[in-house]
Design goal:
Elements: H1 8-14, H2 21-38, H3 42-46, H4 51-78, H5 85-100, H6 104-118, H7 123-152, H8 170-198, H9 200-210, H10 220-237, H11 242-268, H12 276-291, H13 301-309, H14 319-354
Helix pairs in contact: 2-13, 2-14, 4-5, 4-11, 5-6, 5-14, 6-7, 7-8, 7-10, 7-11, 7-12, 8-9, 8-10, 8-12, 9-10, 11-12, 11-14, 12-13
Length: 363
């Protein structure tokens, strides 16, 4: 969270409409490559265009609405209802938009800080809310993935046709990347948990010691600021009761479950899905790899990883051609939709905050 208060100009650049171009180009580029490689026109005629197809696709958008409401509710609870439902809707819309056009590991924290402070949430409370949301999301993955691995075994990360196969292949690369991503998230989440819940002053001391060497000294001011932020957030969080935690955890669970069920329904619109829990678990792996991707919102990476991890669901069900169609529809529903929502909400939000923060007009 270092230097978040000094990153307003960078965040404003994130909300520039031109920022939408790169992620869309990356997503479309990979989807076009998949289509050119795999798609056959006959696949469209093989689809049973029944009312169930439309219903399943509609459910994808319903799940987006449920996910959005869960994030809005979580934000209202964590800010102690200082935001109205309208404000929560706009903040979440722009938060998701910002995350979609920046690498997840780069822009999420600064964007959240910028949005909340512009909504008259004081800096200390904003820091607490943002760090707590990171912790809640991390808990979901750190607990959820091991449980699914116990239930599903190695099939969670290796397509059925590659189980037991040794040697190279895309799966080896994906497994390695997954283990690295999980280790990164575990360290990051546990560090925040230690700082927020156990000993924030010790956490600050560690950061200062870490930046006491000649080659790390330039990050020392940021380390001190981050340590101070953690102490502020920890003091606020310790005053909260169990209702605060339970509401946050519950809303987080609804948010992620809704997000991952979108692909289940999109796929169900076109083929019979054998193993909904496995499909759900594979999406956790896909998202984890998107988190550490350097592309905006994981665009391009999500499509490439999905092309491998979803392979076994299309054996005898339209093959690679049908898989290309499903991935394209899924990304439009789950990713492009948030780009569109953000572009629609942005002008209204900017007009409102401009009245209080003229500096925002730099955009």
């Amino acid at each position: 969270m270092s230097s978040t208060t000094q990153s307003s100009d960078d965040v404003l650049k994130t909300f520039n409409p031109n920022k939408i171009i790169l992620p869309i180009m990356l997503t479309l580029g990979v989807l076009i490559l998949l289509m050119l490689r795999d798609f056959k026109v006959a696949t469209l005629w093989s689809i049973d265009w029944a009312w169930t197809t439309a219903l399943c696709l509609l459910m994808g958008f319903v799940l987006i609405a449920i996910r959005h409401l869960a994030l809005m509710f979580r934000l209202k609870v964590l800010t102690e209802h200082k935001l109205s439902w309208k404000q929560s809707f706009q903040v979440i819309s722009l938060w998701e938009f910002g995350s979609a056009v920046t690498p997840t590991t780069v822009g999420g924290t600064a964007i959240a800080y910028f949005l909340l402070t512009r909504e008259k949430i004081n800096a200390g409370e904003t820091i607490s809310v943002v760090l707590f949301t990171i912790l809640l999301d991390g808990i979901y993955f750190l607990v959820g993935i091991p449980i699914l691995w116990l239930l599903l075994g190695n099939a969670l990360i290796i397509p059925a046709q590659e189980l037991g196969v040794t040697g190279g292949g895309a799966s080896v690369t994906i497994i390695t990347a997954f283990l690295m991503a999980y280790a990164f998230m575990a360290l990051y989440t546990l560090a925040i948990a230690y700082g927020l819940i156990i000993n924030p002053r010790s956490f600050k001391w560690f950061l200062i010691r870490l930046t006491s060497f000649k080659w790390t000294a330039r990050w020392r001011p940021n380390a001190i600021e981050t340590g101070n932020d953690m102490i502020t957030a920890s003091e606020r969080l310790k005053k909260k009761g169990w209702n605060y935690w339970l509401a946050g955890l519950g809303a987080t669970g609804v948010h992620w479950i809704s997000r991952f069920l979108i692909l289940n329904f999109v796929m169900l619109a076109f083929i019979t899905v054998g193993g909904h829990l496995l499909l759900f678990g594979r999406q956790m792996i896909i998202y984890l790899l998107m988190v550490v991707a350097i592309t905006p919102g994981g665009s391009g990476i999500a499509e490439l990883v999905s092309d491998n991890l979803l392979d076994d669901f299309f054996i005898g069900a339209g093959g690679d051609s049908m898989k290309a169609v499903v991935i394209a529809v899924w990304r439009v529903v789950s990713y492009v939709t948030y780009l569109v929502i953000g572009m629609i909400v942005m002008p209204t939000w900017l007009r409102r905050v401009l009245k209080r923060h003229p500096s925002t007009s730099k955009l």
